[in-house]
Amino acid sequence: MITQIEINGFKTLQTAVIPMRPFLAFAGPNNAGKSNLFDALRLLSMLPNHDLPDILHMVRGDPFEMFTLQPDGSYSRRLHIAVELLLDPTFDDEFEGSVTLKRTWLRYEMTIERENHDHSPRIQIAGEQLFVKASDKRLPWAASKAFKQMYLTTKRRNAPYISLDAQGEITVHQDGAERSRPRTMRRGTRQSILQVIRDAGEFPHICAVRNELLRWRFIHLEPEAMREPNEIDGPDRMLHNGRYLAAALHRIMRHDPSAQAEISAWVSQSIPGTRQVHIRQLDELHRYLIELETVDGRCFSSRVLSDGTLRMLALLALQYDEDQVGLICLEEPENGVHPRRLKTVIDLLKRFATDPQRDDLTDGPPMPLRQVLINTHSPHLVRELEPEDLILVEAITQVGAGVPPMRYTSYRPILPPTNGALLVNETVRESMQMRLAALLEDRDLGALWVDGAIGGVP
User: Of the candidates 234, 407, 218, which has an alpha carbon nearest to the alpha carbon of residue 318?
Assistant: First the structure.
């Protein structure tokens, strides 16, 4: 789970410091730079499995467009991303089995630079660091005592797991049962340490970060992919575009007998006239097909269901899939959904995310952490959000004396976090809360955004 991200020199993101929550929405108009944050997260998610040249061609745009465009038309030479992660206390490794971490709140930093080698440009990793968050730091959002006891362990450690010296040398420090000499990685590599280091016995915390990034998913649902019947002996995990939705729902309902009734109840709540969701087996084709039964007994297949209904089923599949853990980034969940159903969409997404204020956590093994980030340009969706779950995104033009104007993306929480880099004086925060509460007496959050009463440009 991300607790904070800092980005500098990536596309339109300049010195951006963004406090994160288990559920968080980014609202802003088209072309404000909302997707650039997701692109930065996507870049991080590919580090454990891909070389840098491959990653550069999988992120939107030309490789050089990943760097900030300067007013003179050139691109910056460096980009830096730092992400603070709250990790699951244990994770499964294919060789070591279950691995328990001594420290779960870590900070990972990476720098990418452009250099000329033999008169040709080369993009390479200039630095990586991984170290423990200071034990006196507090989470940027309220959490119950039970949550902190279960997930937050910050035993003191002076040495980092990955360090970077003044000469740019990257050193990997072992922290497993068998300690040996640190390893030094050559500067200018095109592979992340998260890709090179895979021994969870010697490097459990590096491998835990690697495992976390590999779980991140970026969902962009496509109705035609969700309509398709799925092979019975084919994949049964829904892809990022919604393909294999029928097979995923069949697996979920088979493993959890109550899932079909609960999923059907959610659909009935948001779509009047519906009774139950079925996954039918097409014997002649050996395929699974989604069917929706209405109160009059008729059944309609996924081939004719509306885009909004299919999106709702996909979100339910994510919610009820126990294998779906970690971070989900979802672009514009309002697409194809009637405004009256958006509250149900938000309720579903918030139920998926871990609730850090729960105090009824069991004594058993902790459930894997789950986090949801969405972006939107819809005032109708903003209306259904809580103020603390909203960050406004704007394109700002910076103007200074003797300096050409420069456009960058601004991220501003409606309410500042209770702790962290953007912390404000408690008196100031209470004043902001009182002003917002007074505004919400007459208008909802979406209307306040449209009217400009809370800032931002919808």
Answer: 218
- Locate the DSSP E strands across 101-214: 105-117, 120-132, 162-164, 170-172, 183-185
Q: Hey, how many other C-beta atoms are within 10 angstroms of the C-beta on 62?
A: 10
- Map residue 187 onto helix, strand or coil: coil
pTM passes above 0.85: yes
State how far the alpha carbon of 404 is from the alpha carbons of 64, 70, 335, in Å: 21, 9, 38
- Measured between alpha carbons, how far is 47 from 69 in angstroms, rounded to an integer? 23
pLDDT tens across 116-140, in order? 766 677 899 999 999 998 765 688 8
Beta strands in 133-273 (DSSP E): 162-164, 170-172, 183-185, 217-219, 230-231
Closest by CA to 388, choosing from 142, 59, 101, is 142
Calculate mean pLDDT across residues 37-63: 93
- What is the enclosing helix (H) or strand (E) of 121? strand 120-132
Amino acid residing at 449: W
User: Are 404 and 72 within 8 A, CB to CB?
Assistant: yes
Distances (CA, A) of 297 to 74, 271, 300: 64, 15, 10
DSSP character at residue 69:
B
